[in-house]
Every structure is written in C-alpha cells, then in structure tokens.
Amino acid sequence: MFRAGLTATLQLGQDITVVGSAETGEQALALVTEQRPDVVILDIGLPDGNGVSLVPRILEQAPHCHILMLTSYEDDATVYAALRAGARGYIVKNADAEEIVRAVHTVASGAGYFSASVVEQITEHVASGGRSSDTSTFPQLTRREHEILVLMAQGRGNTYIADYFVLSLKTVRNHVSNVMAKIGAASRAEAIAKARDAGLRSQ
Prior knowledge:
By secondary structure, this protein is of the alpha/beta class. 54% of the residues lie in helices and 10% in strands. The protein folds into 2 domains: 2-127, Response regulator (Rossmann fold), CATH 3.40.50; 143-197, Winged helix-like DNA-binding domain superfamily/Winged helix DNA-binding domain (Arc Repressor Mutant, subunit A, Orthogonal Bundle). α2 (25-35) runs parallel beside α3, α7 packs across α9 (169-183) and α7 crosses α10 (188-197). The model has no long low-confidence stretch (mean pLDDT 86). This is Response regulator transcription factor. InterPro entries: CheY-like_superfamily, NreC/VraR/RcsB-like_REC, Sig_transdc_resp-reg_C-effctor, Sig_transdc_resp-reg_receiver, Tscrpt_reg_LuxR_C, WalR-like. Residues 1-108 form the Response regulatory domain.
C-alpha cells in the first residue's frame, strides 16, 4: 500500500517518470539493471534483507544512479551506515508529498537531500567531534561498538549486523568479542542482558 501511494505521489510530480516498483531487494536490483533509472528510492527494511547492504550492489550495477533512502529508521547508526554505503539522500516516511518530490529532484541533480531531523543529527554529530550522542552508557566502547551492542540488544544476529553496516562477518565477530570483553560479559547472552538492563534495546 505504501509503495502504491508513493508511486501515485511521484507520478504527480513534474518531470518524474516511475519506471518500476519492487517489493524485495533482489527485484529492485533486477529492475535497476533493466531500467537504469536516474534515482532509486529505497527502504531499509526489506523482506529479503537490509536496504543499506543493497546500496553498493545497486551502484555497482548502475554507477550513475542516485539513491534516496525513504524509511522509518532515523537513528544515528542507520543514517551513517546508509551514507557510508553511498546513498545521496535520506528522508523519513512522515515526509509530505511535496518534500518527497523535492528530494527526488534534488538527488537526481547530484546534490544531497536530508530530512530536517536527519540534518539535526548530522549537525550534532559534527559538533560533538564525531562522537555518537548516545554513548554515555558503556563509555568504554567506541561508537561502532556501541552501535553494534544496540543491535545485539534488539536481538539482531551477526549476519544482520554485517548487512546493516556493510561489514564482513569476521569484522562483526571481532567487534562483538571486543564489546563482550570491554563490558565484562562472559557470553553474548550476558552482553545482551547487560545492554537491555541499561536500556539500549530501544535506541
């Protein structure tokens, strides 16, 4: 329903032609290869994987393509993972039709476009010298380790975390081991329990 509504919204925009709509990441990749669109609007939560991990695959198939993330996720970890992967814009699903159309035009021109809430997060990140705003809990962890611990607390496995940050499984395993050592957890389950007790599950 959301994709149908988004398609209708875009078709009302001036100089925008919708060449396809995909339910899964693999369908999207096939459409990109076939249609070679100027812009791909991509969600994070896909039935067959994480949208962030799809960004470099799309750019490999269509280097000229510009990717706009349109998603419900606006936490620091997701925003920066998408930008590192190569996304040119990032807006949240509560954006109105006018903003969505404006974002598509802006990204198509080669410029970046970000929702106001995302701009605020980026500004805070830069102002803090690159430190995450939510690392007061377990300050012994690096920003990346803290982000991984948050996902662990949410019940995410290593494969999901690797896709989320576009990292290798070996790198994720090393991060998880470092997290456990730094917070004094003898097992992954204990690390998750400590994180949840500290309230990280909802971050």
